[in-house]
Amino acid sequence: MGNWLRRRRWLILGWAFLAGVVGVQGLYAGFLNRSYYASLGPFYDSVSYLNRLAEIMWIAREQGVAAALRGATAPANVMLPYLEAALLGVLLAPSRILAIWLQEVWILALACSLLWYLHRLRGVPLLAATAFTLPFFNFATVYWHSGGVSDFRMDLSLYIFLAMSAVWYLSTYETRAAYPWVLTAVAALSAVLARATAGAYLVMMFGPLLAARLASTSGEERGQLVKRLLWAGVPCMAACAAYYLTRWDYLHWYYFVWGQDPTAHLPFLKAARHFWFGLHHLGNALKLAAGVTLLLTLGAAVRADGWPAAGRRLDLRLVWLGAAPGALLAAMGAGPNRLVSMPMVFGVLLFCLMPLRGRHPLRRHPFTAGLCAILLAGASLVNAALGVERHRYFSGRGGEMAAFRQAIDLLRSDARRHGLEEARVVSTTIHDFATPFLENTLIYEHGGRPEHGTVVLPDGFRVNFSRQWSFAPVVPLDWERIPGGSDEEKFHYLVALASRELDYIFLPDLPTIDYLEQRKAGNFQNLKVRRLRRMLLASGRWEPVGEPIVVTPGEETLTLYRKRSGGAE
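Below the sequence we write its predicted structure tokens.
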């Protein structure tokens, strides 16, 4: 062990440096997170993951780790962060900052894997290899307010684990050792547990590479390859298959029936925008630095070996790894969710930095390699610096945190005044204010404990959201599931349900409805709220509480309504 450490002391220093960079990134992401939530409220899609994270951690604290693990493994499209939450819940309280560190630990694993691959297996000098590693976790999207490391959506985790799978799979070409195969399988399984869609990406990214590899080998080499695939790949595939089969009903419903983006079925050319989205994740500074590095690397190779020889060394595996996620999304006709193309970043970046098979041409040109390293590190810093502006840019454009505080204060004070220890409440719109956003604010700003559709505040006051989805159908399918053979019957059902099972309801004003119908019709409820509002108010059972709540100036204003005493059916 001592000899191993001595031989790799410089590599260990590189890992230590990367650990420091990742630590600083985590602290910076925490600053960005606090800056954002100081003035702005929660937003899709991170609220669902954050709310669930808090619920699992509270189960661990109150019922034990075993109960929390059972909750973490319930059918859903995500498991890994909830498993982590189940183990951490007995030690830590839920927080949005904790969610950042749940991502940073895997970013560090990716960074260390990349440094090993670039330096030990591809011969890139340590300083250059360390600089080459930085862009892979400092591209522009990492510092977006939605989907970046300061947020908590699973798209970044999907990228991290798919990139780690790619690193270790590429390592199998460079060494006959067994460990890269094991680590590839572990990373692939982790990708599936982090985001259920990972299975499709894995097949698209690695299936053709494996097929081409098997076709191009023979004899003992092919036998060795098959043997590695069997003892490393089969257990991984069996575990993934068990994961999918045990939650197939939910995953099929979520991705093939209900989801807006997976079921968009856009024409190929329209869905092909995902290729542009994939490049957009890099940011302009990193595109420039990566492009310069690519040109200088190819130039050095051509000068040394001539173009035909250099051209034969082009690493088309990386071209495929960069293109495959975009090709998958385009072939599926996936909707315009920019974040799902993030896995393209790995292949695109690595091809720009390491476009040729074998040893890196710049190893003989330390000045040029140093210049590329400086450019890449500088682009990473530019992307990080722009994170502040990207978070500030949305100030005044999203739901104001002051609006959520006003809503909660109105709700609590009025409920107390009327002797209610529990308030049953929903919101009827889906824009910058929605019931899950209010739930998230109660958990993370007010210390609430999520409990079976209810948030229990420290003073014992309970806010019940169990009926939220009846009044906020996201897609037409949700509306169809509301009882009633016609829209008229469905509206009457909702009016009766509100009178029977709700105490409070948030309704938009008419200018807000106009805006939502014209600009936010993608959320189906926004097309139904005008009629629902009219029928609820016409029933005479609801009265306004306090002043209107300006959620987003010029876009969304809501009023809290209380059910009149004796208003139940």
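The mean pLDDT is 92.
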